[in-house]
Amino acid sequence: MEFLLSQICFFLIFLRFITCGSFCEANHTFYVGGESGWVLNPSEPYNHWAERNHFQVNDTIVFKYKLGSNSALFVYKEDYYNCNKEDPIVILEHGDSRFTFDGPGTFSFISGHKDNCEKGQKLMIVVLSPNQTKAQTSLSPTPAESIDPVLLPAPAPAKSGAPLGFVSWSFSITLMMIIATYLCI
């Protein structure tokens, strides 16, 4: 009976880790500037908008603007501060341009239209690693660093020669689910 119980518990833990991987991946879509869109004078400064949101790997941002009237340039940090449009990493110029974050770090965008960047149309977004929370990072010019997960103490081992009882298995399953859930956040 205990062998069957241990097999069922192992299967449940294995299933939890598999489903955790599929549900933990971020894939939210954010519209830059909210209702204002990607405009010269938004209702809220872009960096304030970015600080209010929680961006993770695989999230997508959408720059909404009239086709041909503007563009968004994904640029290096130095180019962001200097409004340098000469060598962008990516040019987004399709009106409803989408950009998906492929990793954690700081992502800088500027307007490619005339002198809009110099007038403040630029955006810096911090994308969190899977183990970070918004409180552990702030908008900064350096890439966000991964935060090591806090390890939970393991359950005490059973006495030598004594089989693990149902209570011990329940505790182990609960602890494993807590750890799996934490790693997914």
TrEMBL record:
Residues 1-20 form the signal peptide. GO terms for molecular function: electron transfer activity. It is found in: Cell membrane. It is a lipid-anchor; GPI-anchor. The keyword Endoplasmic reticulum does not apply. Its main location: membrane. Pfam families: Cu_bind_like. GO terms for cellular component: plasma membrane; side of membrane. PANTHER family: BLUE COPPER PROTEIN, EARLY NODULIN-LIKE PROTEIN 1. This is Phytocyanin domain-containing protein. The lineage of its organism: Eukaryota, Viridiplantae, Streptophyta, Embryophyta, Tracheophyta.
